[in-house]
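Posting this for the archive.
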Amino acid sequence: MKVVSSIKSAKTRHPDCQVVRRKGRIYVINKTDPRYKARQG
């Protein structure tokens, strides 16, 4: 999982990326290709 300063670039890398808020952090998750996981905060 990458920690990124901007979530916008992470969510546009793959069409299946979803942005989710959990415990005050913003995550990018991808069920079909878990390589694209990222978090901010």
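DSSP finds one helix and four strands in the chain. Residues 16 and 31 are 7 Å apart (CA to CA).
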